[in-house]
Design a protein that fits this description.
Layout lengths: L2 H15 L1 E3 H8 L3 H13 L3 E4 L2 E4 L9 H4 L4 H11 L8 E4 L3 H9 L6 E4 L2 H7 L6 E4 L3 E2 L6 E2 L1 H7 L4 E6 L3 E3 L3 E4 L2 H13 E7 L11 E4 L6 E4 L5 H9 L3 E4 L4 E4 L1
Parallel strand pairs: 4-5, 4-9, 5-6, 9-12, 12-14, 14-15
Antiparallel strand pairs: 1-3, 2-3, 7-8, 10-11, 11-13, 15-16
Helix pairs in contact: 2-3, 5-6, 6-7
Length: 260
C-alpha cells in the first residue's frame, strides 16, 4: 500500500474512533511501528492530527460534540479500562455523584449492587442503576439537553446546592494546560461547576483522546481535581504539571496508582 493511501486510512479511522494506536495500525497495515510514526508525523505537520504517547488524536478544538450514541464508541476499550479502575474507589456506604458522560455511563454499568447513594443528572446512568436494588439512586430534575441524556438548567443547578457527597466522578471533553477542563456547552459547564462544589474528592475520568483538547467553555482549572484516571500514560509535560499540584494520576492500563 502506498504511504498516501495508508495515511488516508489512518485519518478515516481517526475520525471514526477519535484515537488510534501505533501498535494497532502497525499490525493492521503490516508495517513497522516506525513507519506508522512517520505517517503520523507527516499528518501532524499538515495539521490533521495530534501525536500523543502511543498514538494520535484529532487535532483542534472540540466545539462540536457528537451525540452520546457515537461518543460511547470512541476509544471504547480505553473507557472500559478507566471504568474498571474507577470502580475500585467506590465502597459500601459511599455517597457519590456520577457526572453525565460516556465514561461515567460505563462506570455505572460496572458498579456493584452495594449499599451506596448515587446522584446523577444523566438519564442513561439512572436507567443503568435502576435495577440495582441496594443502590439508593437520586436523579436530579432539569431539562434534557438535545443530543445528550444529561439534565441541565436552573433546576439542576439548584438541586446540587443541597447535597454534599464524598466523591464525584467527573467527565470532561478536553484537558489542556493553561486552559483547564472544558466542555462544548455552557449549560453543562454550569452543572459541572456545581457538582465540583458538592464533593470532598473530585475524581476526573478522562481517556487519552481528551488531552491537549479545548472545548468551548472552561468549567474548572486542573488543580480542582484530586485524582485523574486515564487509560494510558500521559505526556511528560502533563506529568510535571500534575506532580507540581499534588494530583494523583491513576493509569488504568497499568492497573496501578502513580503519584507524580
Amino acid at each position: 500500500m502506498l504511504a498516501v493511501n495508508r495515511q488516508e486510512r489512518i485519518l478515516k479511522l481517526l475520525h471514526e474512533k477519535g484515537f488510534v494506536k501505533v501498535s494497532d495500525l502497525s499490525k493492521m497495515f503490516d508495517v513497522s511501528e516506525e513507519t506508522i510514526r512517520r505517517d503520523m508525523e507527516k499528518l501532524e505537520n499538515q495539521g490533521l492530527l495530534q501525536k500523543i504517547h502511543g498514538g494520535a488524536t484529532l487535532i483542534g478544538e472540540v466545539n462540536d460534540v457528537p451525540p452520546i450514541s457515537l461518543r460511547k464508541e470512541i476509544n471504547l476499550e480505553g473507557k472500559r479500562k478507566i471504568a474498571q479502575e474507577a470502580v475500585k474507589y467506590v465502597k459500601a456506604g459511599d455517597s457519590i455523584i456520577l457526572d453525565s458522560g460516556s465514561t461515567t455511563l460505563m462506570l455505572a454499568h460496572l458498579l456493584p449492587d452495594i449499599e451506596i447513594s448515587v446522584i446523577t443528572n444523566d438519564i442513561n446512568i439512572a436507567y443503568e442503576l435502576s435495577n440495582k436494588e441496594r443502590v439508593n439512586l437520586i436523579l436530579t430534575g432539569g431539562t434534557q439537553r438535545k443530543g445528550s441524556y444529561s439534565l441541565v438548567g436552573p433546576e439542576t443547578e439548584k438541586f446540587f446546592e443541597t447535597y454534599n457527597v464524598q466523591k464525584i466522578f467527573l467527565s470532561t471533553s478536553g484537558i489542556k494546560l493553561g486552559q483547564g477542563l472544558s466542555v462544548s456547552n455552557i449549560l453543562e459547564a454550569h452543572i459541572k461547576k456545581k457538582i465540583i462544589s458538592c464533593a470532598q474528592e473530585v475524581i476526573c475520568l478522562a481517556d487519552i483522546t481528551k488531552f491537549g483538547k479545548t472545548a468551548l467553555v472552561t468549567f474548572a482549572p486542573i488543580n480542582q481535581i484530586h485524582k485523574l484516571i486515564c487509560d494510558q500514560k500521559i505526556g511528560k509535560e502533563y506529568e510535571t504539571y500534575l506532580r507540581d499540584r499534588g494530583i494523583q494520576v491513576i493509569i488504568a492500563d497499568e492497573a496501578a496508582d502513580k503519584k507524580f
